[in-house]
Amino acid sequence: MDLNHYLAERVRMIETALSRHVPPASRKPATLHRAMRYSLLAGGKRLRPVLCLAAAEACGGKASAALPLACAVECVHTYSLIHDDLPCMDDDDFRRGRPTSHKVFGEGVAVLAGDALLTVAFEIAAKVPGWPRYPLAAVIAELARASGSLHLIAGQVADLEGERRDLGAGDLRFIHLRKTAALLTSSIRLGAMSANTTPARLKALTLFGRSLGLAFQVIDDILDVTQTSDKLGKSAGKDVAAGKATYPAIHGLEKSRAEARRLTAESGRALRGFGRDADILRAIAAYLLQRDY
Ligand code: GRG
């Protein structure tokens, strides 16, 4: 299947489901539900949920079985963006092509909208039946682990504490693995779990997700330097302004591009044991690399 067609179809499926999983904007407390929907339905790339569905399909499963988990992951991701944009964190005014949540709803409601999205993620995930190799408790533990203090939040803490400090390549890898690769990998793993995949395939997809997540963050860092805010839908040049350690800041642009290519190739090798069913995953990896060219 053509990648653009696949992405358009899956994104439509994900957005319809996301809209159903979150209370309507008119439901009390209306400000909170408006804020949740404002950020969640603002049209991000939907990379994590698409990967979740594509991983399920690569393992012979159905996108419909993975859909609730794809939505759960997107809710966690959107919460993390809302909180990351707060003045006490990255202090950003622009996200997904519109003013950030706290700019529109105020800081209090933005914090609560993030909290509510994180919580609803687990409510959505709890509705899946579980599968013979992956009972519901394993599914919930997977999502919690990726979102928790050893992964997503650990990455954010290291990122915050690293501002204006002289971080090295090892520190940067620590941050990228946690802040970006963990949730991305978990999206893929959750999709594979919904297909009741074998442990060997789950392991291969974990390696795929880790390399792809690292590549994605290196590319994201490059784009922060090379693109405009309009093109990105979020403020460009923020990393340099905040004195953040990024791949291009430490290694330069050309080495960063080479590293993104290397990591993308590595992600492809992780899929060696998969057949044509994994072509969409391969195509997504190639597509992400092209974002910078
Ligand atoms: C607040 C717990 C907590 C975590 C925040 C997501 C995050 C961690 C920080 C946002 C800043 C950042 C550069 C994170 C790395 C991951 C990343 C590149 C997020 C942006 O993801 P995209 O590009 O965004 O997929 P869209 O809007 O397309 O979904």
Our count of helices gives: 15
Give the strand order of the largest sheet, numbering strands 1, 2, ... along the chain.
1-2
Compressed to H and E, one letter per element, the order equals HHHHEEHHHHHHHHHHH
**For the report, how would you describe the main beta sheet?**
2 strands, antiparallel
Features:
globular, single chain, binds geranylgeranyl diphosphate, 15 helices
Description:
The structure is a single chain. With 293 residues, this protein is an all-alpha fold. Helix content is 71%, strand content 1%. It is built from 15 helices and 2 strands. It has helices at residues 3-21, 30-40, 47-58, 63-85, 101-105, 107-125, 136-147, 152-162, 169-194, 199-226, 229-232, 238-241, 247-251, 253-270, 279-290, and strands at 94-95, 98-99. The chain has a two-stranded antiparallel sheet with strand order 1-2. α14 packs antiparallel against α15. The longest helix is centred in the last third of the chain and has 28 residues, at 199-226. 46% of the residues are buried. The mean pLDDT is 95. Bound molecules: geranylgeranyl diphosphate (GRG). Geranylgeranyl diphosphate is lined by residues 44-45, 47, 77, 80-81, 83-84, 96, 152-153, 156, 179-180, 217, 220.
Give a brief rundown of this model.
This protein has helices at residues 3-21, 30-40, 47-58, 63-85, 101-105, 107-125, 136-147, 152-162, 169-194, 199-226, 229-232, 238-241, 247-251, 253-270, 279-290, and strands spanning 94-95, 98-99.
